[in-house]
Amino acid sequence: MEYKLSTIVTKEDDWYVAKGVEIEIASQGKTVEKALANLKEAFELWLEHADSKEIAPLHAVQHSPIFTSVEAVTA
């Protein structure tokens, strides 16, 4: 079965950190591509051992979420 995991990538010092949105899983790499490849590997390993209750949130992902930011200014 194929699963889709929404991912956020941030830069922390010299590393890129890729984090799953629907499940708490993360990995890192020196490039965005490496961080995502490492996350994919970690995600596949997680899927091998996860039970159906843990996998359930992934079934709700039908479309890629939109990630953006908003800015709030206070006086």
Layout of secondary structure:
Layout: E1 7-12, E2 15-20, E3 26-29, H1 32-49, H2 52-59
Antiparallel strand pairs: 1-2, 2-3
Structure description:
This protein is an alpha+beta fold and 75 residues long. The protein has a domain at 7-53. The chain is 35% helix and 21% strand. It is built from two helices and three strands, in the order E-E-E-H-H. The protein has helices spanning 32-49, 52-59; strands at residues 7-12, 15-20, 26-29. The chain has a three-stranded antiparallel sheet with strand order 1-2-3, covered by helices on one side. Strand 1 and strand 2 form a beta hairpin. It is globular. The model has no long low-confidence stretch (mean pLDDT 90).
Structural class: alpha+beta
Q: Helix-strand pattern, N to C?
A: EEEHH
N- to C-terminal separation?
Answer: 51 Å
> Would you identify the regions where 5 or more consecutive residues have pLDDT less than 50?
none
What would you call the shape?
globular
Quaternary arrangement of the chains shown?
single chain
Describe what is shown at a glance.
The protein has about 80 residues and is α+β, with helices and mostly antiparallel strands. The chain has helices at about 30-50, 50-60; strands at about 5-10, 15-20, 25-30.
Features:
three-stranded antiparallel sheet, 21% strand, globular, 75 residues, alpha+beta
